[in-house]
C-alpha cells in the first residue's frame, strides 16, 4: 500500500522549482523595456550575480536537456562571442551604476569550447561595467573531455575558482546508451589538471534514471566518484522529454528505469553519499561538511536558483547569452533562445529579452513558500504568508497528510523525514500556475 502511494506521487510530472514562477510560465508580457528599466533601477554598488550562457557543444549527448547546439566550425563560435560582447556592452549602457559581482557562473552548452582570448575578451568586457568583488565565486561548467592542462591554466588566470564537471555515469554500457563516451581516466585527468592549476573547488554532475542504470551500477558509480573527493555533487533525476528534445529520441525508452526503479535509485545514491560522509543538501545535492553550501544549509541560508541549490543570496541575477534568464525584484526576463535571432537583436542594438514574468506581491509570497519547502522541507505560513487564504491548498494537501507525506500544524507545512524526495509535488500545490496543468515536466523523483 505504502509503495503504491509513493509510486503515485513520484511519477507525477512537476517542475524542479529553480524559480517561481517557473520558466515554463513566462509570457511575452516582459519586453526589452522592462529589462531596461530593471537594469537602470539597480542601486549603486548593489551586489549582483552574473550568468553567461555559452550555447555550443562539439557534439550533442542523447540525454541532454540544456539549451545547446552543435558547432563544428570555429567561426560559428567566434561570431557568437562577438554577439555576446555586444550584448554585454548593451546591458552596460542600460545600467546607471557599477554593480558589484559576488557570483559569476558560466553555463551552457559547453563553456570550455572557448579559447583563451575569447575568455579574456568576455571578462574584460564585463569588468568595464561591473566591479568584481575580491572574494567573488567564479564558477564554470566543464565537459571533462575538453579539460586540458592548458585550459585549466587559462581559467585559473581569469580567476575561475570553482568547476562543475559533467560526469553523468561512469559505467561504459550506460555511457554508450546515452551517447557520452567518457572513460574514468578522462575524468581523472580533468580533476588533476584543475587541481594542478589551483582550481580546488570541484563539483561533479551525475544523473540517475538513465537507460541501463541499476541500483548496483549506481552503487559502483558512487564508489568511483568518492575516490575523487569532489566538494559538491549534484545527482539529478534524468528529465526525459523526447517530445520536446529530438536528441532524447535516441534514447531507448525500453531501457529506461520506471518510476519505482528511479525512486529506489535515488535512495541508493542518498545512502552512498551520506555513508561517505557527505551532507545531503535539499534534494539531489550533496556537499562535504565544511563546504560553504553545507554551512549555509546548516545555518538555514540555503537558496535555490537556476543552477540548483546555492549559497548565493543575491536577489539580482543578470543573464547574458541566448535563453539566459535575469532575475530582478520586479520580475524575470528571459533572452531569445534562438542563437541567430539573439544575434540579430543585439547587433541591432536591442536588448534580447523575449519573455518573462512581472512579479506581483502574491507571486513573491508563493515564491517564498516554495523556496522554503525546496530548501528546508518546511514552510511556516504564518511567517511567510500571513493572512493569505490557502484553503484550496489545504484541501489539496489533505490526501498527502493522510498518506503520511506531509504534516500541517500551527500553520507549518512540514515534509515527513522519510518522504522528503516527494517535495516537488508538495511545492506544486502552492504553485498558482500549476492548477490542472502539469504537462511538459519530468517525473517528481
Ligand atoms: C550544461 S550541462 C553540462 C556542461 C557540460 N556541457 C557537460 O556536458 O559536461 C549541465 C548538467 O546538466 C545535467 N543534465 C543535462 N541534461 C539533463 C537531463 N535531461 N536530465 C537531468 N540532468 C541533465 C548534466 O548532469 C549536465 O552535466
Ligand atoms: S550534456 Fe553538456 S556536452 Fe552534452 S549536449 Fe548537453 S551541454 Fe553539450
Key terms:
binds S-adenosylmethionine; metal-binding; Arc Repressor Mutant, subunit A; alpha/beta; single chain; three-stranded antiparallel β-sheet; 445 residues; rSAM_sf; S-adenosyl-L-methionine; cytoplasm; binds iron/sulfur cluster; pyruvate-formate lyase- activating enzyme; nine-stranded mixed β-sheet; 15 helices; Coproporphyrinogen-III oxidase
TL;DR?
Involved in the heme biosynthesis. Catalyzes the anaerobic oxidative decarboxylation of propionate groups of rings A and B of coproporphyrinogen III to yield the vinyl groups in protoporphyrinogen IX. The chain is α/β, with parallel strands linked by helices and 445 residues long. The chain has 15 helices and 19 strands.
Description:
- The chain has helices at 2-10, 32-40, 74-94, 116-129, 149-157, 172-177, 184-196, 215-228, 259-275, 292-298, 339-347, 361-376, 381-384, 391-402, 423-429; strands at 47-54, 56-57, 69-70, 100-108, 131-142, 162-168, 201-208, 232-237, 279-281, 285-287, 303-305, 308-310, 317-320, 325-328, 331-335, 353-358, 378-380, 406-409, 412-415.
- Helix 5 links the parallel strand 5 and strand 6.
- Helix 3 runs parallel beside helix 4 (116-129), helix 3 (74-94) crosses helix 11 (339-347) and helix 12 (361-376) runs antiparallel to helix 15.
- The protein has two domains: 1-23 and 361-445, Arc Repressor Mutant, subunit A, CATH 1.10.10.920; 31-320, tm_1862 like domain (pyruvate-formate lyase- activating enzyme, Alpha-Beta Horseshoe).
- The protein has 15 helices and 19 strands.
- Helices cover 38% and strands 22% of the residues.
- The mean pLDDT is 94.
- The chain is of the alpha/beta class.
- It is globular.
- Iron/sulfur cluster (SF4) binds next to loops.
- S-adenosylmethionine (SAM) binds at residues 57, 63-66, 107-108, 110, 141, 143, 166, 168, 205, 207, 236, 238-239.
Amino acid at each position: 500500500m505504502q509503495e503504491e502511494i509513493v509510486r503515485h506521487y513520484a511519477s507525477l510530472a512537476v517542475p524542479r522549482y529553480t524559480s517561481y514562477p517557473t520558466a515554463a510560465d513566462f509570457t511575452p508580457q516582459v519586453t526589452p523595456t522592462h529589462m531596461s528599466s530593471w537594469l537602470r533601477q539597480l542601486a549603486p554598488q548593489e551586489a549582483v550575480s552574473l550568468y553567461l550562457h555559452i550555447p555550443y557543444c562539439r557534439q550533442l549527448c542523447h540525454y541532454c536537456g540544456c539549451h545547446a547546439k552543435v558547432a563544428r566550425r570555429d567561426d560559428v563560435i567566434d561570431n557568437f562571442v562577438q554577439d555576446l560582447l555586444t550584448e554585454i556592452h548593451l546591458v552596460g549602457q542600460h545600467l546607471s551604476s557599477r554593480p558589484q559581482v559576488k557570483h559569476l557562473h558560466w553555463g551552457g552548452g559547453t563553456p570550455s569550447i572557448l579559447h583563451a582570448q575569447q575568455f579574456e575578451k568576455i571578462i574584460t568586457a564585463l569588468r568595464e561595467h561591473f566591479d568584481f568583488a575580491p572574494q567573488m565565486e567564479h564558477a564554470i561548467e566543464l565537459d571533462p573531455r575538453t579539460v586540458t592542462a592548458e585550459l585549466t591554466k587559462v581559467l585559473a588566470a581569469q580567476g575561475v575558482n570553482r568547476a562543475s564537471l559533467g560526469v553523468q555515469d561512469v559505467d561504459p554500457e550506460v555511457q554508450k546508451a546515452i551517447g557520452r563516451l567518457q572513460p574514468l581516466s578522462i575524468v581523472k585527468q580533468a580533476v588533476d589538471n584543475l587541481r594542478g592549476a589551483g582550481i580546488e573547488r570541484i563539483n561533479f554532475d551525475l544523473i540517475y534514471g538513465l537507460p541501463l542504470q541499476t541500483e548496483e551500477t549506481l552503487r559502483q558509480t558512487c564508489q568511483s566518484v568518492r575516490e575523487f573527493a569532489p566538494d559538491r555533487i549534484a545527482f539529478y533525476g534524468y528529465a526525459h522529454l523526447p517530445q520536446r528534445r529530438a536528441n532524447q529520441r535516441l534514447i531507448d525508452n525500453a531501457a529506461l528505469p520506471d518510476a519505482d526503479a528511479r525512486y529506489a535509485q535515488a535512495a541508493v545514491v542518498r545512502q552512498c553519499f551520506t555513508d561517505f560522509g557527505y551532507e545531503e543538501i535539499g534534494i539531489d545535492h550533496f556537499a562535504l561538511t565544511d563546504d560553504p553550501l553545507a554551512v549555509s544549509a546548516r545555518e538555514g541560508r540555503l537558496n535555490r536558483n537556476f543552477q540548483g541549490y546555492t549559497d548565493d543570496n543575491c536577489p539580482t541575477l543578470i543573464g547574458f547569452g541566448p535563453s539566459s534568464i535575469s532575475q530582478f525584484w520586479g520580475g524575470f526576463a528571459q533572452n531569445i533562445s534562438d542563437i541567430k535571432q539573439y544575434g540579430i537583436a543585439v547587433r541591432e542594438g536591442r536588448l534580447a529579452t523575449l519573455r518573462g514574468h512581472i512579479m506581483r506581491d502574491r507571486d513573491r509570497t508563493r515564491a517564498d513558500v516554495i523556496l522554503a519547502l525546496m530548501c528546508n522541507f518546511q514552510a511556516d505560513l504564518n511567517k511567510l504568508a500571513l493572512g493569505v487564504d490557502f484553503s484550496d491548498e489545504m484541501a489539496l494537501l489533505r490526501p498527502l497528510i493522510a498518506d503520511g507525506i506531509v504534516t500541517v500544524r500551527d500553520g507549518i507545512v512540514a515534509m515527513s523525514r522519510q518522504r522528503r524526495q516527494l517535495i516537488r509535488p508538495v511545492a506544486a500545490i502552492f504553485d498558482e500556475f500549476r492548477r490542472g496543468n502539469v504537462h511538459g515536466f519530468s517525473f517528481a523523483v
